[in-house]
Design a protein that fits this description.
The protein is of the alpha/beta class. It folds into 4 domains: 2-165 and 220-274, TIM Barrel (Alpha-Beta Barrel); 167-216 and 518-611, no CATH class; 319-396, Elongation Factor Tu (Ef-tu), domain 3 (Beta Barrel), CATH 2.40.30; 405-499, no CATH class. The strands form 6 sheets. It has an 8-stranded parallel beta barrel, surrounded by 5 helices. Helix 1 packs parallel to helix 2, helix 1 runs parallel beside helix 8 and helix 10 (443-454) packs parallel to helix 11 (479-499). The longest helix has 21 residues, at 479-499.
């Protein structure tokens, strides 16, 4: 058995999408003009069409994020938008709102966004039966939980492997709406989880002061790709629809190289894995995820609960560790570092008060660094580089090239010559060219020239994997003719590739199999009548309106696997043998005038936040 393994990259815009494809992505996800969970990263239909056309040249796919919940007044516009992206050639929609399934849809694949809170086999099986072609699992799931789900469904399962982590279950976070009137389920999250908080008890005593207590490190599962393959994952997703093109280039290239090394020899339970797209990517730099935006790296909960998931000191990029301070001069510092520094590099550190600080380098003399302004720093302070000027300059240039392999055969016909081109996907184009046969005076040179001229594929999407020249004699053929025939061959092969693009078109049919729950609270995110109609159709007997529609009082606003009792040694289950005093409840988070209550559901191993 063969299983397609997809590397899925983010695209803030057309440029990011094209570079994701160039750097090895099998698919790209990009925001629709409206109704995307990143409201500030919408794209025009024209740009989506351009990206899709570019991706399809390499048989790569484009997925359109239309994953917010919708008002009744927006459903007609959403339906029109879906038809527009379908006509633009998009391969799938990523959605959250089940009301969309009640619309008049084109035959386009639907992927269930992580915003639909896909944590259980019951939920994923329901989505499969509903007609979804791919499901994005919750980031909180461990390896065994993932394996349990993939073993019981047939559709591809998608898992985040890199990028920012939401501290709350996706689709189950309402703090931004409750406090700031900006709904995360509507693509307008204000990121209250990245703010500094005080942890206090019910008497107002401060336990922890001014720390980013809900801020998590970024996800990096690059060391666990083989285990994820073994667990049944088919799509490896990189987070980052708000990230710049440098991030997309670097992280896509990094995971492409890692996956290619695995796919070249890895088999699992009799399966052979392969990338579903065409083209070989050549890189003009060495990818390094430490040099792109990250808040520190974490495997999160993939292998079980661990303490190394938080970023309490700062929600900003920490970068790569480059050494400790060994000397402090009047206008310079010295590091014990093997790293090569450059003018313009950005360094950062945490000072003695726990504050995150940074500075730019003006001049470099080996390990002696002259900052624009000397920082207040002590010896042995650990330094990190969160901006590598030289690396940034590399990525500002052309940093990768993707080409499709083609085999060329040039042979003789009765009245001239024949040119056959066959690509790595077995698409084939051949054409006969009537021509006068003029014997060459230098047989060896003539044959070499034919090969050389036909191999000049230049700025096309192809490279020559093999070339054969099969003639009964040696002939002189003008370079101008060979160039024309080569051009005709490439144009013909390109058209055939376009005709053979493997579209996956599926018409979603109405179904009535039971939803896993009979009753839905505000957590069901039912925001329009079409969504209510969908759930009634699937056996739900009562529904509360979405939080955004009728904000309920005294209800949880966030549900988290991250737990502050665990972080500070107060967890009865995981911290039995430590000597730290238990944190006494009730506990609160305070930010300016906002006071948020913390509750702990130890049976579910969850922390809950409410007003």
């Amino acid at each position: 058995m063969n299983r397609k393994i997809e590397l899925l990259s983010p695209a803030k815009n057309l440029e990011c999408g094209i570079e994701a494809i160039n750097h090895g992505a099998d698919a790209v996800y990009i925001g629709a003009p409206r109704f995307s969970a990143r409201a500030s990263a919408g794209n025009s239909i024209q740009d989506i069409e351009k990206l899709t056309a570019y991706a399809h040249k390499f048989y790569a796919r484009t997925y359109i994020a239309l994953n917010t919940i919708l008002k009744d007044s927006e459903l007609d516009d959403a339906q029109k938008l879906i038809w527009d992206v379908y006509h633009a050639g998009a391969d799938a929609l990523i959605i959250q709102d089940m009301g969309i399934l009640q619309l008049d849809l084109p035959p386009i694949a639907l992927h269930a966004s992580t915003q639909t809170d896909n944590r259980t086999i019951e939920k994923v099986r329901f989505l499969e039966q509903t007609g979804f072609s791919q499901v994005v699992l919750a980031r909180e799931l461990g390896l065994e939980e993932i394996k349990n789900i993939t073993s019981q469904v047939k559709i591809p399962i998608e898992v985040f492997v890199h990028g920012a982590l939401c501290v709350s279950y996706s689709g189950q976070c309402y703090i931004s709406q409750a406090i700031g009137g900006r709904s995360a389920n509507r693509g307008e999250c204000a990121q209250f989880c990245r703010l500094p908080y005080d942890l206090i008890d019910d008497k107002g005593n401060t336990i922890v002061e001014n720390k980013h207590l809900l801020s998590l490190k970024d996800l990096n599962l690059s060391d666990y790709l083989t285990e994820l393959l073994d667990a049944g994952v088919s799509s490896f997703k990189i987070e980052g629809r708000l990230k710049d093109v440098d991030y997309v280039k670097n992280i896509t290239a990094f995971y492409r190289k890692k996956l290619d090394a695995i796919l070249s020899h890895c088999h699992c339970k009799g399966e052979k894995f392969f990338a579903p797209t065409s083209g070989k990517t050549t890189y003009f730099f060495e990818p390094n995820p430490e040099k792109s935006f990250h808040r520190g790296s974490s495997s999160y909960l993939l292998k079980g609960r661990n303490a190394d998931i938080t970023s309490f000191d700062t929600p900003k990029s920490t970068g790569e560790y480059v050494g400790k301070v060994t000397e402090i001069g009047k206008n310079y510092i010295v590091l014990d570092s093997p790293a090569e520094f450059h003018n313009g590099d950005g360094l950062c550190f945490t000072d003695k008060n726990g504050e995150f600080c940074g500075f730019r380098i003006n001049k470099v003399e080996g390990n002696r660094l002259y900052p624009a302004q000397i920082p207040v720093v002590e010896k042995d302070t650990m330094m990190f580089r969160n901006f590598d000027h030289a690396f940034s300059l590399l990525l500002a240039k052309k940093s990768a090239e993707r080409k499709i392999a083609v085999d060329i055969l040039f042979s003789e016909t009765e009245d001239g010559f024949s040119l056959k081109m066959k690509d790595e996907d077995d698409n084939e184009f051949s054409s006969n060219f009537p021509a006068k046969k003029e014997k060459a005076t230098n047989a060896e040179k003539a044959t070499e020239n034919i090969s050389a001229q036909l191999s000049k594929l230049g700025n096309t999407d192809f490279y020559v994997r093999s070339i054969g020249v099969c003639l009964s004699d040696s002939y002189f053929i003008p370079n101008s003719l060979l160039s024309d025939w080569r051009r005709i061959g490439i144009e013909g092969l390109t058209k055939i590739r376009e005709q053979h693009y493997p579209f996956f078109r599926i018409k979603i049919e109405r179904t009535s199999h039971p939803y896993p729950e009979k009753e839905l609270s505000y957590l069901g995110n039912v925001y329009n009548e079409k969504a209510a109609e969908f759930y009634k159709q699937h056996g739900v007997v009562s529904m509360e309106p979405a939080f955004e529609q009728k904000q309920p009082e005294n209800v949880p606003l966030m549900f988290m696997k991250h737990c502050l009792k665990y972080s500070f040694g107060g967890c009865a289950k995981y911290s039995k043998n430590n000597n730290q005093p238990a944190l006494k409840e009730p506990l609160f988070l305070r930010y300016k005038n906002e006071l948020l209550k913390l509750e702990f559901d130890c049976k579910q191993c969850e922390m809950i936040l409410s007003t």
